[in-house]
Amino acid sequence: MTLGERLDAATGHLPAPLAVVDLDALEANADDLVRRADGMPIRVASKSVRVREVLERVLARPGFAGVMAYSVREAVWLARQGVDDVLVGYPSVDVGALDELAADPVAARAVTLMVDDVAQADLAAKAAAAHGTTIRVCLDIDASLRFGVWPLQVHLGVRRSPVHTASEAAELARLVSVRDGIAVRGVMFYEAQVAGMPDASPAVRMVKKLSIADLATRRRDVVDAVASVVGPLDLVNSGGSGSVQTSAAADAVTEVTAGSGLFVPGLFDEYRSFRPRPAAFFGLDVVRIPAPGYATAFGGGYIASGPPTASRQPRPTFPAGLRLTGREGAGEVQTPLRVPAGGDLRIGDRVWFRHAKSGEVMERFTTVHLVRGEAVEASVPTYRGEGLSFG
User: Residue 375: CA atoms inside 13 Å, Cβ hemisphere, count?
Assistant: First the structure.
């Protein structure tokens, strides 16, 4: 029985649109991440999951420790649910959330904020002073690959932190650490040009190789420089699902982060560093046959963030051979599909899609069905299903 047939058998009694996670694939992906991390603890990126039950199942497996949240409010909520180590992956200026964090002893012990500017640390310090507590912070260090000098500088990677060099990191550590109520815990490097890009292209593989070599030296220099200001660091976070093995093997790193590698979305199909096992799908039902060679499914316009290209559209997966139309693509309330010669889609049939990115699709559903074999093992709420939206 194919995966598509298993999903049909497991969920045929459920209405569509619906989201599913195949537990066998999820667990195989988790095991593969642990294998590639080779003993290095893996922090789970919650933005790539957005389902508390799945986060808890993964954290219960050997090799995983802690969550990387994407919002301070999310981090406080996770801490109250029992997650005792939450690193917020992005800076925040949400003063209400910062105050809530500082006012909650449980959350203050569990959560570490991300900063790359003194202004962010000042907001956290104000909240800490109001409640007489200490807030831990991590310095976000730019991990992009740079050549040349501004304005002729080449920047390969995402636009994140303005802090790139060891001297810049040491200066930020000095300015942040003198704020009352603030303790610098560590540093983070997210090498997006290594972790977040498919490596089928020789040019991309070259960029990855150069980036890994650059970080091998610069990461150690930054860690030493920051430690000279604030003392030994207990947190040096690096990597992503596409760079687990190289980040885990790097000098000075204490943990790696992974999230998308659990669900393996469409954008991960071209990776060569690991074997993709798609685990998350959404199902739509065919509601009309507008012409020979076409079928139209209800719903489906779940477009991924990023540049507005075809790669950000969902991918029809089962039955095989289906493709989106060039004129309409995945629509707000209907998605027309081209059916291959010999294909036989009928009204009421179910089509399974993969989202281009990982956790984003879970914002579209209140419930996700966890499938094992040919049965639904559990139906659990997404963040949205718990009445939560963190951005």
Answer: 2
Contacts of 181 (CB under 8 A, 6+ apart): 102, 124, 125, 128, 129, 133, 134, 135
Convert the pLDDT of each residue in 91-122 to its tens digit. Answer: 999 999 999 999 999 999 999 999 999 999 99
- Considering the domain architecture, whether residues 173 and 290 belong to the same structural domain is answered as no
**DSSP alpha helix (H) spans, 242-367:** 244-248, 260-263
Q: Are residues 175 and 83 in the same domain?
A: yes
Whether residue 6 is contained in a domain is answered as no
| pTM for this entry | 0.92
Q: Is residue 324 part of a domain?
A: yes
**Helix, strand, or coil (residue 258):** strand
For 174, the domain range is 23-263
What one-letter code names the amino acid at 54? V
User: Considering only CA atoms, which of 187, 156, 183, 194 is closest in space to residue 170?
Assistant: 187
For residues 57 and 318, give the distance between their C-alpha atoms in angstroms, rounded to a whole number. Answer: 27
- Tell me 303's DSSP state: P
**171 and 54, same domain (yes or no):** yes
- CA distances to 34, 195, 201, 258 from 272, rounded to whole Å, are 17, 12, 10, 16
